[in-house]
Amino acid sequence: MPNTFVKIASVTVGAGGASTMSFTSIPSTYTDLLVKFSARSSQTGTDNSQANLTFNSSSSGYSDRLLYGRGSSASSASSATSYITWAGIVPAANATANTFSNSEIYVPNYAGSTNKSLSSDNVEENNSATDNFLTLLAGLWSNTSAITTLTLTCNGGNFVQYSTATLYGIKNS
Amino acid sequence: MTDTPTKIVVDCSTGAVEELPLTAEEIAQREADAQAFAAAKHEEEVAAQEAAAKKAALLTKLGITADEAKLLLA
What we know:
The complex is a heterodimer. In chain A, a hairpin with a 7-residue loop joins β8 and β9. Chain A has a single domain, classed as Jelly Rolls. Chain A starts with a strand and ends with a strand. Helix content of chain A is 0%, strand content 51%. By secondary structure, chain A is mostly beta strands. Chain B contains 2 helices and 2 strands. The longest helix of chain B is centred in the middle third of the chain and has 39 residues. Chain B has a two-stranded antiparallel sheet with strand order 1-2. The N and C termini of chain B lie far apart (59 Å). The interface between A and B is medium-sized, with 37 and 25 residues. β2 of chain A pairs parallel with β1 of chain B, so a sheet runs across the interface.
């Protein structure tokens, strides 16, 4: 039976926290990439922080479309910035203590020579009736380079201790 | 004085994990991104409040409750 779902690398944030988690020198031997991460932010004064995504340390060519639920409302947003916004939404200092997000990002055909699409789904995890997020995102990196580096950045505060990210390689045979 | 933020870098070819301080440029970018996110959230909250106020005003004008409005639209 082919081994089609392979853990490439994993990271867990230590006691000091960290603002970013990066996977570098990603091998091109798989068909797709999958990142599963569970994180929390140290940012104060808010229930949630954003986890941004970049590839190959590039700061251009990103766009995304987001559907989200927050409390009892649902809405959508678009952006085109120097990173994929809302690749993750994580609980911050005001959120329920000791809760971490559940998030995953799927990147098909990451080593090909076409532009790179991705999807992301997240739950923030917060025991609040009004300030919690569920998100579903479609993203595009308009760049034909193979993805060799993938970086998640906490845009406010740091990822706190025990935040984790694991990168998997997916093969189609 | 605050500690310099750090980044964790995992080299997938070797499995080596490094924890490095952010550069000044990376710190500045992070601060700009955080401000943009806060502004976007604020805009969304203001829009939601405005929509709720308009809805309440309309219900008052019609003299019906939100549940009665749902019945009309069902």
